Fold this sequence. Notes:
Chain A has helices spanning 133-142, 155-159, 181-204, 218-231, 250-258, 278-289, 320-326, 384-388, 395-404, 407-412, 423-427, 434-445; strands at residues 41-42, 48-52, 54-55, 58-59, 61-62, 69-70, 75-78, 83-85, 90-100, 103-113, 167-172, 209-214, 236-241, 273-277, 296-302, 310-315, 336-339, 346-348, 361-365. Chain A is an alpha/beta fold.
Amino acid sequence: MAEPSTTGLHAAWTFDPRPPRPDWGIALPAVKRLSTRGPIQPAPPPAEAVISLAHAQGIATPLVRPGDRVLTGQPLARDAQAAAHASVTGTVVAVESRPVPGSSHTPCVVVRREDPERFDPALRPVDPAVLTPAQIAAHISAGGIAGLGGALFPTGRKLRAGAPIRALIINGVECEPWISCDEMLLRERAAAVIRGTRIMMRALATEQAVIAVKVDMAEARVALHDALEADGSGSIGLAVVTARYPSGGERQLIELLTGEEVPAGGLPRDIGHVCQNVGTAAAVADLFDLGQPLISRIVTVTGGAIAAPGNFAVRIGTPIAALLAAAGGCRAEPARLIMGGPMMGIALADDALPVTRATNCVVAATAGELAPARLEMPCIRCGECVQACPAHLLPNELLGAVRRGDAAALDELGLAACIECGCCDHVCPSAIALTPRFVTARAAQRPPPGPGEDPS
Amino acid sequence: MNRPVTAAPHWRTPDSVPAIMRQVLYALLPAGACHVFFFGPGFAVNAVVAMLAALATEALALRWRGQPLRPFLGDGSALVSAVLLAFCLPPLTPWWITATGAAFAIGVAKHLYGGLGLNVFNPAMAGYALLLLFFPAWLTHWPPPRIGDLDYQALSTAQTLYYSLTGTLPGDLTLDAVTRATPLDLTKTRLGMMYTMDAIRTNPVFGDFGGAGWEWVGNFVTLGGGWLLYRGIIRWQVPAAMLAGLLLPALLLWLADADTHPSPLFQLWTGGTLLGAFFIATDPVSSPVTGRGRLLFGAGCGLITFVIRAWGSFPDGVAFAVLLMNAAVPLIDRHTRPPIYGHRRPHGG
């Protein structure tokens, strides 16, 4: 078991490997099995890759112009926090705004693929042991790595801690039903996750890390356990948390593991913790071990309409239509196409949109799998939303404040603490669309972009 | 390809307001059947009259307020209020009294406050309280339970209907011949006449613990309440706190002097205790939304019930206790808000 770290301002911390069940959240049926039957398969590189330059802290500045020839892994854009790289070899055909999931106008670089594929010769493995923590963080920024849980918070930025860190928390909880990319990654590449964790620990100068998984991930736990034994250093622990959604939300996971809450308006590092997704850890390992920047990610393709659901290693920028084809296409016309999970995912109008670094899952759902549209009834104050809310808010009273347009009441009732997880909305017997109202009210309350939250 | 772009979450619980109300009605069925078994068909007559009056009032109120009829008339909430009111009324109640109570419950207590979800007071209890004030003498005609060696004449369905329609009994039947004082009534009046509890309990309307027949109605109410708890339609806090709020003081006084205080088991198995704890005080609209708030609310309902039974002028106090606590709900909600995530002082280390 992990030795508690005693560095810095924060007291030593010993984590509970099996935290108690929380008094919030909801039990959701697990439908991951649909996509965990086979191994992760490579999806073919797309004929045209549309590579978004956006991350949670801004837009990387383009380094290429239309007509430029680019090699796989070559930087297309860069800023101080992150970068974007060519995911295929070919010619830049456009540098322009394109629709991507969740946004109708995002600066993108469009690369038309040309065979044969050649990798950027500048890509080289790097030994993190010879780098300072700041150099490691800078290399990760230049490698284009941003929170792969879906928040796209630039990883390099998160690793420039400033304050001493008690422990690095590696989030493999993946509490959204349907999504299984993190679970499959842990099953197949637990050692890479641990290597990436170790590199990030070095960047944070912390001696302790915990990898958290969900209680129903038996195979992933075994794989992690074996890999941790092989690693043998003892400074990385394994925690198993409840399957109650949203146990994988950054703030909820920290509460489960530490019993502490991230202060309002603050960041996890304010209480001595940094959270990274397992996919991010594996991407860091690949960057240092293989010299490979973030040019692909694992995407779950699932839902009742998909012929062969599974997980795919997908080049960034691949059109979702091509990804669906890699999964055998649709055997039925999907009633809805969702990027992400059923609780927080974005419904897509169009399957021509590209996979971005934030795309963890594409659900092609049949009508029977989703809630049918229901008439909104008045709130009957049943209190189910209050029980479910992981931020301990009173969604029923927030609804009243939203309807009245009462900004002061929204403030007092703590709308800012809402993580938009959808629990209140999900349990509402009156079928009141609470979450969309809260999302809109939050957007009006404070100007974007805020620090990314990511309960996937 | 263009698909509906709906907002997250894309999953929703299958629970709905009509489904919840339907399950509450199902949960009341065993107790209703038991009521009919022990006290005759009067409960069924009252329930039908109350449901018809409640639906008619609901329809009129919705039309008057310009609201759509179909979703609200079909949500089942008026039917639940009507059946709960019928549980409070004696089996021998003239139809116009039942209908007045149901109409007041739905028309005034519910719709004047804004309709479904906005009523401050439990509609059924508001209707019942109005009837207690307007028609006190009419609400005392309880037939004794149809068990044991009670000397009384059981009324047939036709005779019950006759009474409900006309407010009089057919032929030479007198009310004295077909009704008896309830156990709670007897306890209150005879304790006032300096009888001891042991002497009072020799009356055959008493059963093993509470009232004869009443005990079984209570058992079936508990069965229905247990089903609602199991289904997650009600939560444990209100029933547990209400029973504790009533039974703990009853236990203390009974331990102090069992001659002049009914036992806690009598309190549990008589009157509206169990119905109040599982079906009335748990009405979501007129009770608090937080767990701590529900504990306070339930405890208050139980305690006030106890005080009214022990020292008040009404034999039972559940209805007034619930109404009084209903008025306190906004205050309770305000003072039991859980600490918002991130606003608690960090602890441990």
